[in-house]
Design a protein that fits this description.
two-stranded antiparallel ribbon; Ybab, Chain: A; 4 helices; 5 strands; 118 residues
């Protein structure tokens, strides 16, 4: 298969997998709790904050500053879980043999002119 055909095939597969993930991600839920158990955050697969739950002792025994730190900790941990799930679902996708997630330069996966002449 020539390089252009390979890129077309890879892009088609990547687009299909990405579209499927994009449809289900908003409905997926990722939950994490602060280390002290005071706050639990739930985010969607698109990292949208869905819910925050405070333990009964959180508002009674924890000062506002610490409680705020617990909220940030729980939300960031839940977002990390969502990001890991996204990587698991899409991280294997490649175009022209290179992982899509590794592209900082879109030109990186386009074959050079010399490669096309072969």
């Amino acid at each position: 298969m020539n390089p252009v055909e390979q890129i077309r095939r890879d892009l088609s597969q990547a687009l299909e997998a990405t579209a499927e993930y994009a449809l289900r991600a908003p409905h997926e839920r990722y939950e994490a709790t602060s280390d002290d158990g005071a706050v639990t955050a739930v985010v969607s697969g698109t990292r949208e904050l869905v819910d925050i739950v405070f333990s009964p002792r959180a508002t009674r025994d924890i000062d506002n500053h610490t409680l705020g730190e617990d909220v940030v900790e729980a939300v960031l941990a839940a977002e990390r879980l969502a990001t890991e799930a996204q990587q698991a679902a899409l991280g294997h996708l490649t175009v022209n043999g290179r992982r899509i997630g590794d592209f900082s330069d879109p030109q990186a996966f386009v074959p050079r002119i010399e490669d096309l002449r072969r």
